[in-house]
Amino acid sequence: MEGKNQNTSIEFYMMAFDSHPELKPLFFTLFFIVYIAALLGNIVITTIIITDSHLHTPMYFFLVNLSILDICCTTAAIPKILQIIWSKDKTFSYSGCISQLFIFSSALSTELMLLAVMAYDRFVAICHPLHYSTIMSRKTCTILAAAVWLLGAMNSTVHTSLILRLKFCQRNIIHHFFCEIPPVLKAACSDTFINNVVIIMADIILGMVCFILIVTSYTYIILTILKIRSADKKKKAFSTCASHLTVVSLFYGSSIYTYIRPAFSSDSETDKVMSAVYAIISPVLNPIIYSLRNKDVINALKKLLNVNVSS
Length: 311
Prior knowledge:
Blueprint: H1 6-9, E1 11-14, H2 24-51, H3 58-86, E2 91-93, H4 94-127, H5 132-135, H6 138-164, E3 171-174, H7 181-187, H8 193-226, H9 231-260, H10 268-292, H11 295-310
Parallel strand pairs: 1-3
Antiparallel strand pairs: 1-2
């Protein structure tokens, strides 16, 4: 069953929806609506920020990067999910699965680091407002954004390279929505000990370190806000951080759980739920969270709509 030409003979079978075949029409409808909502929401946020010069600040620059990552996550996963649900063909080629895994894991690790960078931006804005423009200059923001994208791609390359070394049977059943590192490792026909060790190391280096940086940043932020005497200024400062904290809680909680726990135990149903949170639900909620709680974005949207109506 194993062979050297596995890149051409191996196939993966995505069986995530076979346990409830009667719900496939509902699943298709939900995933389709979620994908359109995520795509439109993130495109709208990106368009608003790019077209409105008042939003050309570090915080919104990083928000554009977050929206692009969310588009990458959903586009890498959901179209294939829709195809599998719609058609009777549940197969996924070896090259297609590996490509999806690389794109998704790259976007995931990049977003982990980007959220830490966004927390640092809020730390500088609130704790060192007089030096904000100097510290978070355009050059600094560009370097930080380029660094997280590069490190994310490098991290994904390491994991993908290790998976390419594994041997797979010709037919592999994956009880998941899409090709992601944990479920693909479960399907491997060879030992995955090194892969699991590297996953834990990456989670510690990327996930936990970034999470600690976020917690540290917000500890200083909260202490600084509590010293503010004006109630209105306190409320404004908290509101600028609340959106980011909500996104961090959803994304970090689900992604770290999914990538650390499989090395010790396995529960495919829980894995699917947690993956759906950061791969599907989070990209939909991010534009809503950042826009509904942000008057600048809402005003910019109204301005953009008024211009289009006038034209």
